[in-house]
Design brief:
about 200 residues; alpha/beta; Rossmann fold; 2 domains; 7-stranded parallel beta sheet; 8 helices; 7 strands; about 35% helix; about 15% strand; globular; binds magnesium ion
């Protein structure tokens, strides 16, 4: 099987980190459970400047390296790799975050999972020529059987794969979301993802 795995809020607890960060930077109290929009500027009610500053802080290597792992992610992904499945972690993080993101994966024991940066949300200010900085046209040539994703804003990247099974990691910002088709399934943890993927 070819498996697409998103990074933030699928294999690590990014939003929880952001919740702490806005408290530190702007003295705002928005707990994780209240992050109702994938758009963090909207969820945290930030000005353009505040949002830019927060994103800059969040993408510093020491910050990226401190994100907590989502329980069970490493174990499941490594089991898939050991069974011969092809796992690609496809993140919307900018390519400038590639090295610390790679280091985080390696530290967590995910050395064999491939990592690619794809501009999912129009956030990348420039494109970089690297095998790991995916252009949309190259991403669209890749094929997947299963995807793990939390962001409704990324579902459009699955439109070209009508047979794809999409495991939507349950998060506050996708609770109200309607799924595009019956191949989408809400999953509450990695155990549930693993069960659903293994039963095919
Ligand atoms: Mg995500």
């Amino acid at each position: 099987m070819k498996i697409y795995v998103d990074f933030d809020d699928c294999i690590c607890e990014t939003a929880k980190h952001f919740s702490k960060l806005v408290a530190e930077l702007f003295d705002k109290d928005v707990p994780y459970e209240k992050i109702n929009f994938f758009n963090l500027q909207k969820s945290f009610v930030l000005t353009d400047e505040e949002y830019k500053y927060m994103m800059m802080e969040a993408h510093k290597p020491e910050s990226l390296l401190s994100y907590e792992e989502t329980v069970g992610a490493t174990k499941t992904i490594n089991e898939w790799i050991n069974c011969g499945h092809d796992v690609s972690i496809i993140t919307g993080r900018p390519f400038s975050a590639y090295e610390p993101s790679r280091e985080w994966l390696d530290n967590k024991g995910l050395k064999d999972a491939k990592l690619y940066c794809l501009d999912k949300y129009g956030r990348h200010s420039y494109s970089t020529d690297s095998d790991f900085s995916l252009k949309l046209e190259d991403y669209l040539k890749m094929n997947f059987d299963v995807a793990i994703e939390d962001s409704p804003a990324a579902f459009k990247f699955f439109n070209h794969l009508p047979m794809l099974k999409v495991m939507v990691y349950n998060r506050p910002w996708n609770k109200e979301c309607e799924f595009p088709n019956k191949n989408y399934k809400r999953c509450f943890d990695w155990e549930m993802i693993e069960k659903n993927v293994n039963k095919g």
